[in-house]
């Protein structure tokens, strides 16, 4: 293994093998402990997209909430799952199936289309025309805004689904889906996330479907693997310290280096990661 591969694995805390039950417990306990430490807060908020990551984290969050309510013999704590479609969502059936599996304390729906379109229009009026790609980032940031407003109203924390297979390529919108209060999935790669969902009894189609950011109007449900130019199998192997093709390694390491600014503290005169 190269020095870079080893340092990436260390930085992202990936284990070559996991015990799914142990990982589930570790992450539920983290969320419970955090809520108990900051006792003004009484729950979590997360967007439910119908994809693998939000299904996993929402389920873990709901289990944490259920345990806390049971232990304290009350109904103080809640998990708020949020449907955040842009107009009509292509995989709305998967969102419904995910909600059925998660059984959130509360489900809210905020359609982000009007806000995103208004933002695009206001920029245009100011002489700034954004591409469809940049509009995709606006969708991710609008979802972040909605989740923080909901968290503010309900005294909750915003969860983030960032995990090692996403962090390594920086495949998230800075201050969009990358913004959160807690990131309980850190350290897991994509196939380990699947293992956890399987252990939790999740319907297979929710974790076997192709991961997609689904942010672009012109390329709906574009597969992450197509956008990244590398497969999650390759990314996961790399993160587990395995040998992969030279071509895939170069793509992954290229993304990693280019997106360093998304994983490090904001550049200032008091840090030097950027030098
Ligand atoms: N070296 C540097 N130091 C400090 N800041 C730097 C920088 N390079 C760029 N930047 C800043 O970062 C900005 C670019 O970053 P950002 O705005 O995030 O945008 P960018 O990384 O260009 O795009 C986000 C990517 O993440 C994907 N994504 C987004 C959301 C969700 C998901 C998903 O899987 O669900 C995937 C999306 O499809 C797209 O490929 C630049 O405009 C600049 O402001
Ligand atoms: N349409 C949506 N409705 C609600 N939340 C969304 C939506 N799209 C994205 N999100 C939020 O943004 C996060 C990042 O999206 P991402 O695509 O990485 O994860 P995912 O959809 O849960 O899983 P997958 O990677 O398998 O597609 C999601 O976990 C979810 O919390
Ligand atoms: Mg998705």
Which tags fit this structure?
Rossmann fold, ATP-binding, NAD, metal ion binding, metal-binding, binds nicotinic acid adenine dinucleotide, four-stranded parallel sheet, binds magnesium ion, 275 residues, 52% helix, globular, alpha/beta, 4 strands, 13 helices, binds adenosine-5'-triphosphate
Protein architecture, described:
With 275 residues, this protein is an alpha/beta fold. It has a single domain (3-262), classed as HUPs (Rossmann fold). The chain has helices spanning 3-12, 20-37, 52-71, 92-102, 113-125, 132-154, 164-167, 190-199, 204-208, 224-228, 232-239, 246-258, 260-263, and strands spanning 43-47, 78-83, 106-109, 157-158. A 4-stranded parallel beta sheet has the order 3-2-1-4, sandwiched between helices. The two termini are 25 Å apart. Bound molecules: nicotinic acid adenine dinucleotide, adenosine-5'-triphosphate (ATP) and magnesium ion (MG). Nicotinic acid adenine dinucleotide binds next to helix 6 and helix 10. Its EC number is 6.3.1.5. Catalyzes the ATP-dependent amidation of deamido-NAD to form NAD. Uses ammonia as a nitrogen source.
Strand order of the largest sheet: 3-2-1-4
CATH superfamily: HUPs
Number of DSSP E strands? 4
- How far apart the termini lie comes to 25 Å
Mean pLDDT: 98
The figure for the number of domains is: 1
Order of helices and strands: HHEHEHEHHEHHHHHHH
What class would the helix/strand composition place it in?
alpha/beta
Give me the Rg, rounded.
Answer: 19 Å
- How many H/I helices? 13
Outline the biggest β-sheet: 4 strands, parallel
Oligomeric state: single chain
Helix content: 40-55%
For this structure, the CATH topology is Rossmann fold
Query: Any low-confidence stretches, pLDDT <50, length ≥5?
Result: none
The CATH class turns out to be Alpha Beta
Binding site for deamido-NAD(+): 141, 174, 181, 261-262
Function: Catalyzes the ATP-dependent amidation of deamido-NAD to form NAD. Uses ammonia as a nitrogen source.
Enzyme class: ligase
Domain NAD/GMP synthase: 26-264
């Amino acid at each position: 293994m190269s020095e870079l591969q080893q340092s990436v694995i260390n930085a992202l805390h990936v284990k070559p093998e996991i015990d799914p039950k142990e990982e589930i417990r570790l992450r539920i306990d983290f969320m419970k402990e955090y809520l108990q430490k900051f006792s003004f807060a009484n729950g979590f908020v997360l967007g439910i997209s119908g994809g693998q990551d939000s299904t996993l984290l929402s389920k873990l969050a709901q289990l944490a909430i259920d345990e806390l309510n049971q232990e304290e013999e009350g109904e103080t704590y809640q998990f708020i799952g949020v449907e955040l479609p842009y107009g009509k969502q292509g995989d709305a059936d998967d969102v419904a199936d995910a909600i059925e599996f998660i059984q959130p304390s509360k489900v809210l729906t905020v359609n982000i289309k009007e806000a995103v379109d208004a933002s695009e229009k206001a920029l245009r009026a100011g002489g700034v025309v954004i591409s469809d790609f940049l509009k995709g980032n606006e969708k991710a940031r609008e979802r972040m805004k909605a989740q923080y407003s909901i968290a503010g109203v309900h005294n909750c924390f915003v969860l983030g689904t960032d995990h090692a297979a996403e962090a390594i390529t920086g495949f998230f919108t800075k201050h969009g889906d990358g913004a959160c209060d807690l990131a309980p999935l850190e350290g897991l790669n994509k196939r380990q996330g699947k293992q956890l969902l399987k252990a939790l009894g999740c319907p297979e189609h929710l974790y076997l479907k192709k991961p997609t950011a689904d942010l672009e109007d012109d390329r709906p449900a574009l597969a992450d693997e197509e956008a990244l130019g590398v497969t999650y199998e390759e990314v996961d192997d790399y993160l587990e310290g395995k040998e992969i093709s030279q071509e895939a390694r170069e793509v992954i390491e290229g993304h990693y280096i280019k997106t360093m600014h998304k994983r490090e503290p904001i550049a200032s005169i008091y840090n030097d990661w950027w030098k």
